[in-house]
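pls design
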C-alpha cells in the first residue's frame, strides 16, 4: 500500500527455485529478481535441512541483498540450531553474520503461534 515491493516465500520454495534456475542457466536473473524487492520475507528457515548447493544458493541471494534491501526471516529454530539446516559450519556462520549485521532480532518465544491459537479457541469453546 505504501509502494514498497515485498516478496514472501518459504525457505524451501526459494531454494528449490534457485536450484531449478541454476540448472536452467537462469540463476543470475533469478538472484537479481530477489535482489530488487524492497523486503524479502523468508519463512520457515531452519525447519528443513538444506543440502550444500541449496545453502550456497541461498547465501548468494542474501549476499545480493546485503546492506541494500531488507530481509525478514521467520524461524522456529534459534541461531544455534541452524547448524542442522546448514551443515557446513562456515557457511552457517556466514549466513547468520549477513542476517544479523545491523539487524533487529525479535524473539517471540518458543510456543508455536498456531498451537496457542488453537488452545485458546478450545478453551473459549469449553467455557461457552
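designed seq:
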Amino acid at each position: 500500500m505504501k509502494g514498497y515491493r515485498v516478496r514472501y516465500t518459504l525457505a524451501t520454495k526459494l531454494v528449490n527455485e534457485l536450484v531449478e534456475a541454476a540448472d536452467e542457466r537462469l540463476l543470475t536473473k533469478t538472484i537479481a529478481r530477489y535482489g530488487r524487492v524492497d523486503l524479502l520475507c523468508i519463512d520457515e528457515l531452519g525447519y528443513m535441512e538444506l543440502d550444500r548447493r541449496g545453502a550456497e544458493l541461498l547465501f548468494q541471494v542474501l549476499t545480493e541483498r546485503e546492506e541494500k534491501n531488507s530481509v525478514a526471516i521467520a524461524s522456529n529454530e534459534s541461531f544455534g540450531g541452524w547448524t542442522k539446516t546448514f551443515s557446513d559450519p562456515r557457511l552457517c556462520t556466514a549466513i547468520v553474520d549477513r542476517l544479523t549485521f545491523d539487524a533487529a532480532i525479535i524473539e517471540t518465544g518458543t510456543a508455536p503461534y498456531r498451537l496457542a491459537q488453537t488452545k485458546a479457541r478450545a478453551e473459549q469453546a469449553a467455557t461457552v
